[in-house]
Amino acid sequence: MWSGARVFRLALFSSVVGMVLAAPSAHAQTLSGGALAKALQQGGYVIVMRHASSPREAPNKPEANPDNPKAERQLDAEGRATATAMGTALRQLRIPIGEVLTSPTYRALETVRYAQLGAPQTYVELGDNGQSMQGGTPAQAAWLKNRVTQFPTRSNTIIITHLPNLTAAFAQQAEGVADGEALIFGSAGRSGATLVARVKIEEWPKMRL
């Protein structure tokens, strides 16, 4: 015969499991297309994106852009084109952008520049620690998870970072995130932030109201 304490523990475990099973899928999206554009027009969201397309290897110094003296990884032709098209789409859709937070890496700053997102604020917490695809720490992940719960009013915040930081902070939600892809978070009240959409960088120009 089970003791009262064991019955209580079993009931508590069942309750927790029930809540987990009732939770929405990590890839569930509540907004898309025109509905997403209209929501973003009102502001209040945090858009966390991976920088636009960039070769995995840094260029040789002679091949680096003139304003890339450290010869860091830089955007390729696709990255430059898609970042430009994304920025144009945001303006055409009249989606207001407030704060722009970015990794201090060259390729992240290039993404901001080609998208014409405005003057960015650089944060080492969003960087790659000079390790490219191997960068990211638990402290950086915690910082990012906290930052996406700080929702603006009447505008949207854009955060540009790297794959290791995204997957460390949002393990399931960021699974398979592509270059330039964005995770869009909205308020979940006291629960913090909830993922409302994932948008590939090439999808912004296709969005219609």
Secondary structure topology:
Elements: H1 4-22, H2 33-42, E1 46-50, H3 77-92, E2 97-102, H4 106-115, E3 121-122, H5 138-147, E4 156-161, H6 163-169, E5 182-187, E6 193-199
Parallel strand pairs: 1-4, 2-3, 2-4
Antiparallel strand pairs: 1-5, 5-6
Q: Give the CATH topology.
A: Rossmann fold
Domains counted in the coordinates: how many? 1
Strand content: 15-25%
Order of helices and strands: HHEHEHEHEHEE
Which outline best applies? Answer: globular
**Highest-level CATH class:** Alpha Beta
Short recap of the structure:
This protein is α/β, with parallel strands linked by helices. It has six helices and six strands; from the N terminus they run ααβαβαβαβαββ.
What would you say this structure looks like, in words?
It is a single chain. With 209 residues, this protein is of the alpha/beta class. Helices cover 34% and strands 15% of the residues. The protein is built from six helices and six strands; from the N terminus they run H-H-E-H-E-H-E-H-E-H-E-E. The chain is globular. The relative contact order is 0.21.
Could you list some keywords that capture this structure?
209 residues, alpha/beta, Rossmann fold, 6 helices, 6 strands, 34% helix, globular
